[in-house]
Write a structure and sequence with these properties.
By secondary structure, the chain is of the alpha+beta class. It has 2 domains: 10-96 and 114-241, no CATH class; 252-285 and 308-376, no CATH class. The protein is 30% helix and 24% strand. The protein has 13 helices and 16 strands. The strands form 4 sheets. The chain has an 8-stranded mixed beta sheet with strand order 3-2-8-9-10-11-1-12, with helices on both faces. A 4-stranded antiparallel beta sheet has the order 7-6-14-13, with no helix packed on it. The protein has a two-stranded antiparallel ribbon with strand order 4-5. A hairpin with a 2-residue loop joins strand 2 (34-41) and strand 3. Helix 8 crosses helix 11. The protein starts with 12 loop residues before the first strand and ends in a 7-residue tail after the last helix.
């Protein structure tokens, strides 16, 4: 992911008229990218491959709250006038199902076919929000750093082009300001768009890399005027002021560790269904399991990595038994991983404040409320 970042200055801020977004898509396709972007499908805005800018959900917005998600039309016909949907970019970097290898009988022995990571998909991610980019950085720590690197993840990540979109509005479950992950995109992008409508729909484009600049050079654009840059700044400020949730993260890692035996864990366990919705929609969760399959002849076998969750009964089953049998212990593990264990291990949070877990929890459990309730009553840990 090494990119030559351009020096700061007015030359980084350009204007892309809305009609030229179609040209951007065309340029990306001509460069061999599979473009992943938001689309409207079955009552939600999700991420899928697109062939045309016409597939973007123009003129739609979302309403989100604990256990609630709904789409509504908007009058201004914005292309990115909504928050995040149920799918995260990790689906493409860390696929839900990934074959690790295949084995076939060969005489008295067998042959093993490993995946060819040189042919990994070449993605252009269009519409990445600030919190989502921070989530990708969290997964980078897991899969693309240290002694053990996931080669498939590394290859896809190196090739991935990041076109971010700064948020102009927040929703009822957003709390990226509390987590210091948004709503403005910080770094690690190739291009960053902010949708404005001064004299007509347009995007203020910030250039984040030489690769991003080379793409923009193929599209009609012009230098942004100071008033347009100011309009983009106001868009982001409006989103920052409209957060639906908040949490005080100062000292929360220590407080949660001290509140390990807090009765609040029992209370939330009565509502939690252990359905794993929160972990499936979370952009930073990375738990997986390994499954092996074979055909009826026994001549062919495959090993697959598949998404799993700390909420499933089998996830913590080891030779000596299951170390987290109750919903109480599973929910506690999940929250503490986001706000305490990750801090102890890496010095940063495993939560980016996107609010997906709150929106898509069928019981409407709010992670900010639960974490704050335990942290505010610390210390309650037993000796």
């Amino acid at each position: 992911m090494s990119r030559h970042i351009l020096p700061t200055g007015d030359n980084r801020m350009q204007i892309l008229e809305a009609q030229h977004l179609a040209t951007l898509v065309e340029v990306l396709r001509n460069r061999g990218y599979s473009i992943i972007a938001p689309v409207l499908r079955e009552g939600a805005i999700i991420l899928e491959e697109i062939a045309s800018a016409d597939e973007l959900p123009r003129g739609w917005t979302d309403e989100q709250g604990p256990g609630h998600y709904a789409l509504e039309p908007r009058e201004d016909r914005k292309l990115f006038g909504y928050a995040v949907g149920p799918t995260a970019w990790k689906r493409f970097l860390f696929p839900p199902n990934h074959r690790l290898f295949a084995a076939a009988r060969a005489g008295k022995g067998f042959s093993v076919q490993s995946p060819d990571n040189s042919t990994a998909p070449r993605y252009a991610f269009l519409g990445v929000r600030a919190c989502e980019l921070e989530a990708i950085k969290v997964q980078d720590r897991v899969f693309n750093s240290g002694s053990y690197v996931d080669q498939h993840y590394r290859k896809v990540r190196e090739e991935a082009l990041i076109i971010g979109v700064n948020c102009g509005e927040a929703r009822g479950t957003c709390f990226c300001v509390s987590m210091k992950t948004g709503p403005r995109i910080g770094e690690g992008f190739d291009l960053a768009l902010t949708e404005i409508a001064e004299e007509g729909p347009a995007f203020v484009v910030e250039i984040g890399s030489q690769r991003g600049k080379s793409i923009l050079d193929e599209i009609p654009h012009r230098k942004a005027e100071p008033a347009e840059v100011e309009a983009a700044r106001e868009e982001v400020e409006r989103a920052a002021a409209g957060m639906g949730q908040s949490i005080d993260t100062a000292g929360i890692a220590r407080a949660l560790n001290e509140g390990f035996d807090h009765p609040r864990w029992d209370e939330v366990a009565k509502r939690c269904m252990s359905c794993a919705n929160c972990t499936m929609v979370c952009p930073t969760c990375f738990c997986s399991t390994v499954k092996e399959t074979t055909d009826l002849t026994g001549d062919h076998a495959e090993r697959w990595r598949r998404w799993d969750s700390c909420f499933t009964a089998e996830f913590t089953k080891i030779a000596g038994g299951n170390i987290r049998m109750s919903t109480r212990t599973r929910y506690r593990q999940w929250v503490m991983h986001k706000f305490a264990h990750w801090v102890d291990q890496f010095g940063t949070f495993g939560c980016v404040g996107c609010g997906r877990c709150i929106t898509w929890c069928p019981a409407g459990i709010n992670i900010t409320e639960e974490a704050a309730a335990v942290a505010s009553a610390a210390p309650l840990r037993k000796n």
